[in-house]
Protein 1
Amino acid sequence: MAGGLVALLDDVAAIAKLAAASLDDVAGAAGRAGTKAAGVVIDDAAVTPRYVVGLTPDRELPIIWKITLGSLRNKLLFILPVALLLSAFAPWAVTPLLMLGGSYLCFEAAEKIIEALAGHHAEEEVAEIASPEELEQRQVSGAVRTDFILSAEIMAIALAELPDASLPMRAAALAAVAIAITIGVYGVVALIVKMDDIGLHLSRKPSAGARQLGAGLVKAMPVLLTALSHIGVAAMVWVGGGILLHGLEVFHLGAIPHFVHHIAELAGHAVPFAQGFVEWLVGAIGAGICGLIVGAVIAGVLHLVPKKKAAH
C-alpha cells in the first residue's frame, strides 16, 4: 500500500511538473504574441475614451465594464475560435477578412472627419438623445463594434507569432493574450476617464501639494479627453491603413506599401539620431494617408447611393 501511495505521489508530482512547464510555455508564447500587438493595444486605449462622452460620472465605470465584457466576448467567443479554424483550414482567408475590417476602420474615421469638417459634432448628437438607456446602448454598441476590428487585428498579430505551436498551445496563448490585453486596455481607460474625480478628491486634501495636483488634474482632463478623441480617430485611420498596406504586400501588390516604406527609410536616414522613431512616424503617416483616402472613397460612395435612390 505504501509503495502504491509513493508511486501515486510520484505520478502526481510528474503531472504537476508537466502542467507547470505547459503554463510556462503558454506564458512565454502569450508574451511573445502580446508584444507584437502592442501598437494596436495603444490605439485601442486611445479610441475608447471618446465613447463615454455625454455620460454622467456615475455611469462611466459601468459603461466601461460593459465595453470590457463586450471586448472579452469579441475575443474569446468569436475571434479566437474563428482565427484558429481559419489558420488550420483556410489561412488564405485571414488577410482578406482583416482588410475588410481595416476598410471599416478607415471608413469610420473618415466619417468622423467629414462630420467635423461639416460642422456636425458627435457631442451635439449625443446631447440630442433624451433617454439615458438609449445613449448608453449607442455608446456601448459603437465601442464594441470598433473593438471587434481592433481585437481581430490584435489576435491575428498574436497568432502570426505562434506558427509552430500546437492547436491547444495556440488556443491557450491567444486566450491569455485576449484576457491580459483587455484588462490592461480598459483598466487604463477607466483610470483616464476617472482622473477628474481623482483630481477632485485630491483638491480637498489638507496638503497644499495634493490640492495643486488635484486642481491640475481637473483642468487637464477636458484637454486630455479632447486630445484622446482626436488621437482615437487618427489611430483608426492609421491602423486601418496599415492593415490594407500589409494586405497588399501579402497579395504581391507592393507598389504603394514599398513606396511608403521607402519614404520612411529615407526620412529615417536623414535623422540618424532618431532613425527608428522617424521611420515609424513617417510610415504611420503614410499608412494614415492611404487609410484616409480609402475611407473617404467608401464614405463618398455610401453617401451617394442613398441620394441616387432618392432621385429615382
Protein 2
Amino acid sequence: MTTLEKAIALLPTKGYLNMNIPKELNLVDEINRMRKEKNAIILAHYYQTGDIQDISDFLGDSLQLARAAEKTDADMIVFCGVHFMAETAKILNPTKKVVLPDLLAGCSLADSCSGEGLRELKKQHPNAIVVSYINCDSGVKAESDIIVTSSNAEHIINSLPEEQEIIFAPDRNLGRYINQVTGRNMILWDGACIVHEAFSLERIAEQMLKYPKAKLIAHPEAQKPVLQVADYIGSTANLLNYVVDNDSQEFIVATEEGILHEMRKRAPGKMLIPALTIDEKCNCSECHFMKLNTIEKLYLCMKYELPEILMDEDVRLKALRPINKMLELSKAIK
C-alpha cells in the first residue's frame, strides 16, 4: 500500500490526508499554481486562520459564500470552512468537485439537530413551516422549507405571513433574537453554538469598564444577556462593516476571533478587543472546528483533490429547494 493509499484509508478517522510535505516547498506558490491548473476557487469563511483568509479567492460569511458558490464557474471548489458549508456548496454545484481540507471540521450547532428529530417536531406542529439556519447538515436542510443566515433571517421572517406558524432550527439564541426583533413567536429548536454560548457577561462587563469608549458588538448566536448590553448586533459580515464604518475607535467583539484578522486589515488603527469567555484559562473565542483547516491541509487537499464532499442525490435535491428559496428572498440584501 502506497503512502497516499494509506492516507486515503485513514480519511474517515483522521479527517485529512496525513502526509509529509517537503520543507522546502513554498505552499503559497504551490496553491496558486494548482488553483490555475485545476481551475479551482478557494472559498474561505471569516473564522479561518489568517493565512487561509489571505490566500482565498473569496472571503465571506455564510450568505456571501453561498452566493459565491452558486455563481462560480470553477471546476473545483475548495471550501475552507466547516462541513455544512462545503455541503451547501455541493448542493448548489452537483457537477463540480467540492473538497474540504479536513472532514472533521464540523459544527456543534449543526450536530445539535438531525433530520429525523426535525421530522418528529414537524409532526407535532403540522401547520408549521420549517425555517432552518444554514448552520445545519444536508439532512436538516432537506426537511426545511426555507434556509436563512444571520444576515438575512430577520428579512426573510418578516416576508412571511404574520399568522404563519414557524419552526426555527437549530439555534435557539438566533431564533430568540429574531422573535424579539420581528414580534414573532416561532417554535425554537434547542440548539446552540458552543463558541457563542461561551461568552461571559460578567467578564465582558469588566472589559466595558476597562474600555469605557469601546462599542460592544455581538453576533446574534450569543446568549440573550450579552445581546441585551450590546451596542450593535449583527451577522459576521455586518459586524465587520460596522467596525469599518463606525466612528468609534475601540470595539469589544463578541464573535469568533477569526473575524479580527479582516477587521484589522480593513480598519487599521482601531482597537479590537476579543470578548472574554467563561473559561478564564483561555482569553480567546476560537472555534476548534474552524481552526482544523490549515494551510498544509489546504495544499494536500488541492494536490490530491481529497477529501471530497459527496451526497445522495435525493437528499441534495430536497436540500436545494430551501436554499434556492433563501437566495431568491435575499436578493434585496447586499
Protein 3
Amino acid sequence: MTALFALVTSLMWGLADFGGGLLTRRTPALTVVVVSQSIAVAVLGVVVAATGAFSEAGPKLWFAVAAGLVGPVAMLAFYKALALGPMGVVSPLGSIGVAVPVGVGLVLGERPGVLQFAGILVAVVGVVLAGGPQFTGAPVQRQAVLLTLLAAFGFGAVMALIAEASTTVTGLFLALFVQRVTNVVAGGAALYVSARRGGRVLPQDGGWRVVRAALPALAFVGLADVAANGTYAIAAQRGPVTVAAVLASLYPVVTAVAARGVLRERLRVVQAAGAGLAVVGSVLLAAG
C-alpha cells in the first residue's frame, strides 16, 4: 500500500507541475499559486466541515503551518532559479529534495533492505536523469544553484512536515486545510507586496478574463497538489518513509511524459534512460 499511495503521489505532483507550468506561460507564477491554492482551500473547507475534522485540532497542526510557510518560499525560489537557468540543470537538481524525508526516516531508525536500498539509488539517479541534465554549455550562475538548493530543501521539508501533521484520515483533512490556508495567506502577502512594488499580477494580454477562463485548470492544479500531499502522508504513515519519499519523487518522469504526450516535446536520450531507471527503481522498492 505504501508503494501504491506513493506512486499516486508522483502521478498527481507530476500532473500538477505540468499544468502549473502551462499556466505560468501566460499568468504570473505567484498568481497561479495563490488562485489555485485558494480553490483548494474552498474545497477542503467543505470537506473539513462535512467530516467534523475540526475536532482533530491539536499541537500537530503546527507541522501543517510550517509546511504552509515553507512551500511558497520553495516554489518562488524554484521559479526564480528557472528564470536564471539553464532549466536542464535546475530541474534535475531540484529533485534532490528527496534527501530530506529520506534522511528523516533514517534518523528515526528506518533501515531499508538491500533490495530497497538498491531501488532508492536507481530511482534517484533515474529522477535526476529524467530532468534532462545538461553536461555541457554555459556555466551556471551561483545564485541559480543556491536558489535551486533552497527550493529542493523546501520541497523535501514539506514532505517531511506534512507526514507528521496528522495520524488519522480526518486529521489529515484538517492538516491539509491548515497548510493551504497558510499557503494562501503567505502567497497573498507576497503578491500584495509585489503589486505594491509594481510587479505584474495579471496576464499582460487579457487580464482577469484570462484568469477566469483558466479557473478549471487552476482548480485542477490546486486540487492535484492537495491530493498528492494527502496520498504522500498516507504512504509515509503506512510504511517506511524512505520508500514513500523516493517513489513520490518520481513526479519529474510524469511531467516529462505529459509534455511528450500533450506538447509533443521529444525526450532526449538521457531523459528516456532516466525514466527507465526510475521505473526499475520503483519496481525494486515495491518488491522489497
